[in-house]
Design a protein that fits this description.
By secondary structure, this protein is of the alpha+beta class. Helices cover about 55% and strands about 15% of the residues. It is elongated. It is an enzyme of class 4 (lyase).
Length: about 350
């Protein structure tokens, strides 16, 4: 005896872009679901209100839909999703005004038009937020990019100052004091590169990429570049003096210790020896470096006076000649003011790191 063809109970709901159909059939096998000429055709073997039979129905939609229905089988029902061709709200599901007897609203998923619009806006906002996060990157991704960028910057600076330090050390071991007098011509290009790149460090502090205070970084950048580019770089007579060796050598000693410490910080590592050197070596090196800079300025004063470079005469009616050596003398005072500011900053850093030793009470 052939199975009787019956119509299952079908429940529907809609959103602006989709239609949802829930077919009350369990244990469905081999469903045939298709859309042709805007009509949904359904036929399947399953267990429904009339027992285990073949159930089928046809629905002609009110408006145009896409001809690719998506369905999902569960143990108790068949869920069908149909995409509307135009995003809009329908007043009913079928083209015929009278609702078929087997069709009813799915109140579990039912929303009125205003609620559906709110849901649609929420989904759209969620989608836009997701796109924005993908374009901006997650906080973890940004943190990793920041660490990678800082690691590479510190690595480049370390390699540059290491090259200067090794070059000067090897030449001193081979040539002795004779190596002092051509230091500038030997390593100037690399020193120019490293000191120009050091501007990135100050920019990082200014825009918050690093937590370093801006003032100490700016003082060191401007001070060193004034010595390198103006005092030494513009006067050939200064480039052959021994003091250039001590300026460059003391600068490089401090940096080949400082930059490895920053590199290890970027990868969340703490080597006690490197950390101790970072917070200790500056104590003799920094004052000696400032002293070497001061000597270079003092030695340059008579040279600038003799050549008249960067000197100028004030316009009429004053007509006073202002020698560049006047600014160099002011800069000498600023060197030791900068020494005080940076020394105080570095001392505070060391005290925070290692704390103050308590005095024993006798």
């Amino acid at each position: 005896m052939e199975s009787q063809v019956l119509t299952p109970h079908v429940y529907w709901a809609q959103r602006h872009r989709e239609l949802y159909l829930r077919v009350e059939l369990s244990d469905v096998q081999n469903p045939a679901i298709s859309i042709t000429e805007n009509v949904l055709h359904f036929k399947a073997q399953g267990h429904g209100a009339k027992g285990d039979n073949v159930y089928e129905f046809h629905l002609e939609f009110l408006e145009l839909v896409k001809p690719e229905p998506i369905y999902k089988l569960t143990q108790r029902q068949v869920n069908i999703t149909v995409q509307k061709k135009v995003s809009q709200w329908w007043e009913r599901l079928t083209k015929q005004e009278k609702r078929p007897l087997f069709l009813a609203p799915d109140f579990d998923r039912w929303l009125d038009e205003s609620d559906a619009e709110m849901e649609l806006r929420a989904k759209e906002e969620e989608r836009l937020n997701k796109l924005r996060l993908e374009s901006e990157g997650s906080p973890e991704t940004l943190a990793n990019l920041r660490k990678g960028y800082l690691f590479m910057y510190n690595l480049v600076q370390f390699l540059g100052f290491s090259w200067i330090f090794v070059n000067l050390t090897v030449r001193f071991c081979i040539l002795g004091k004779e190596s002092f007098y051509d230091t500038f011509h030997t390593v100037a290009d690399m020193m120019y590169f490293c000191q120009m790149l050091a501007a990135v460090e100050t920019i990082n502090a200014a825009i918050g990429v690093t937590s370093s205070p801006l003032l100490p970084s700016l003082i060191q950048l401007l001070g060193r570049n004034f010595i390198l580019f103006i005092v030494i770089g513009t006067m050939e007579e200064m480039q052959n003096k021994a003091v250039v060796f001590f300026v460059f050598y003391l600068w490089s000693i401090g940096e080949i210790i400082r930059y490895p410490f920053y590199m290890l910080t970027c990868v969340d590592m703490d080597w006690k020896v490197v950390t101790w050197l970072r917070y200790t070596v500056w104590i003799p090196i920094y004052p000696l470096g400032c002293l070497a800079e001061a000597v270079s300025v003092i030695q340059s004063i008579p040279i600038f006076n003799e050549t008249g470079r960067f000197s100028f005469t004030l316009p009429y009616p004053v007509k006073i000649k202002v020698r560049f050596s006047f600014f160099l003398q002011i800069y000498l005072i600023m060197i030791f003011l900068g020494l005080y500011i940076n020394f105080r900053h570095l001392y505070k850093q060391r005290r925070r790191r290692y704390g103050q030793k308590k005095k024993k009470v006798t």
